[in-house]
């Protein structure tokens, strides 16, 4: 079996990743040699859970952001426990699909979740006249059973479209069609697509931040401070081991946990200020403003297939969802390449990419069966997370997948995460959306920017997309 060789890490240890290569890779230069933990390296047992939780927090923040946009279009009230049920279902699907992707798919440390690609095709479906929602007052007066039926009908229509979409994507992946089409998925295709995905929802992130600019700016400041200016600061921490007893380790804690630290500090600060009655009840940073979902959500709930009823298949919905297939393929291929470069690996071969697209198709079918209201795609935000932390261990991503599956059964805990203050969520998500654009723009290094033709195509594509 051939291998994709890794550039030497900071310990100069040769590491390899098994792949079935079909031809020589191109454009395979790694980003740099400063990996904290390479793809086949196991971080210490005291670090692995924290690194995995950071990936889970990144994924959950993006999912909360997506469902903050989707839930009102499904006619779900702000304090309806259905928000927690849908989010828990999406977390379970993200866990299963991430595990399958790292073991059976492209086998890179890449997280799968409900992304923005499918959201853009779902929203036009819900804007159809038959799916228009009544006002929140009318929905409230309907009663819980009638409200449940209202949003169930909408989710079931999306489920049917997702199942068909997943079948098509699975066929495109496992038939080898994607491998043969890779020559057409060039940086000139990837850059406009991914930039527009990030830019198209940045307005929602800014809207969330506008609720309290002070909190949002402090969150952005902490993210920037930890990830860019304190990333080389080494802190000595005491660690206990059953074999070696108590000992000290030196860690670049700000580089490894920049996202987790920033969100954690701001969330705790908001909870404290709310408890001291310093924050007004109408302020979005008030952590008690979303406690209705937390009170109404059950403690445990296991998502299961067809939990909202049988999926319905509408030609209109299926046709509206078809563009998401091709946009998702372009985004995923770009994420595979970028993740490989961030991990100091050469470019994945055609058959590995085909497997990855096929797994995403299977995951989207699974999402359709469970009823997430969205499809599954590779997470550009988590790829950007690798670029920030330089942690690309597959074991970390595998543990993150297990945590997400376990977490999805604790609906009350999922509801607690929904109470994350909007300005903090908006600031974090905006940074992650910027990373999508940054990941996209990094592909420009592979094209000739002195060519007027390339510049014309790039500018025209972004212009018409906007």
From TrEMBL:
Keywords attached to this entry: Membrane, Transmembrane, Transmembrane helix
Superkingdom of origin: Eukaryota
Transmembrane segments: 50-70, 82-104, 158-177, 184-202, 208-230, 251-274, 313-337, 396-418, 424-447
Annotated GO MF terms: transmembrane transporter activity
Keyword Disulfide bond part of the UniProt annotation: no
Gene Ontology, cellular component aspect: membrane
Topology of this chain in the membrane: Multi-pass membrane protein
Family: Belongs to the nucleobase:cation symporter-2 (NCS2) (TC 2.A.40) family.
Name of the protein this chain belongs to: Solute carrier family 23 member 2
Organism field: Schizaphis graminum
Gene this chain is encoded by: slc23a2_1
